[in-house]
């Protein structure tokens, strides 16, 4: 499933689940609701929707994990976000403290072609302006 066919909300939830998995393993509805600033009922409804789309695996009372398809979408969104943060800071001169919110808005709408052009223009960077790693075009994390 391609990122472009999914709503911004779905993309945000997948990105959130991806990040929470690193600290919590299986992601609980409560943790997801808190991270997304929504009610547990809203988070639960979205997890059911994501499971129906085969983007997450969910076991009631045991939490959710991304499927390979869900992980791919999450990594694409993270890649877009971090490339945009770096582009906004280095090319457009935005202060590093101001790039996150702007990248949050733009990460959902840039094309794969624009992503590739930004990547190339920045010299295929491995880290964003905050020092966080950027997945490469194959969605692999840079070597430590």
CATH superfamily placement of the largest domain: Iron dependent repressor, metal binding and dimerisation domain
Q: What value does the Rg take, in angstroms?
A: 15 Å
Give the DSSP E fraction (strand runs of 2 or more residues): 5-15%
State the helicity in percent bands. Answer: 40-55%
Q: Terminal Cα separation, in Å?
A: 29 Å
Total number of β-strand segments?
2
Topology pattern, helix = H, strand = E: HHHEEHHH
CATH fold label of the largest domain: Diphtheria Toxin Repressor, domain 2
Overall tally of domains: 2
CATH top level of the largest domain?
A: Mainly Alpha
The low-confidence runs, each spanning 5 or more residues with pLDDT under 50, are none
- Give the number of helices: 6
What would the principal axes of the Cα set say about the shape? elongated
Strand order within the widest sheet? 1-2
Mean pLDDT: 94
Question: Helix/strand/pairing class, anyone?
Answer: mainly alpha
Task: Give a quick account of the main beta sheet: strands, pairing sense, barrel closure.
Answer: 2 strands, antiparallel
What is the CATH architecture annotation of the largest domain?
A: Orthogonal Bundle
Please tag this protein with its features.
single chain; 144 residues; mainly alpha; Arc Repressor Mutant, subunit A; Diphtheria Toxin Repressor, domain 2; 2 domains; two-stranded antiparallel ribbon; 6 helices; 2 strands; elongated
Give a quick rundown of the structure.
By secondary structure, the protein is mainly alpha-helical. It is built from 6 helices and 2 strands, in the order αααββααα.
């Amino acid at each position: 499933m391609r990122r472009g066919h999914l709503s911004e909300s779905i993309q945000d939830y997948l990105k959130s689940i991806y990040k929470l998995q690193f600290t919590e393993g299986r992601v609980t509805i409560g943790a997801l609701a808190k991270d997304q600033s929504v009610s547990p009922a809203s988070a639960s409804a979205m997890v059911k929707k994501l499971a129906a789309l085969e983007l997450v695996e969910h076991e009631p009372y045991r939490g959710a994990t991304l499927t390979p398809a869900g992980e791919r979408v999450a990594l694409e969104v993270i890649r877009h976000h971090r490339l945009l943060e770096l582009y906004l800071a280095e090319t457009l001169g935005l202060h590093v403290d101001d790039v996150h919110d702007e990248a949050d808005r733009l990460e959902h709408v840039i094309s794969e072609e624009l992503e590739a052009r930004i990547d190339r223009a920045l010299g295929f960077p491995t880290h964003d302006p905050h020092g966080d790693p950027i997945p490469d075009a194959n969605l692999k994390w840079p070597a430590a």
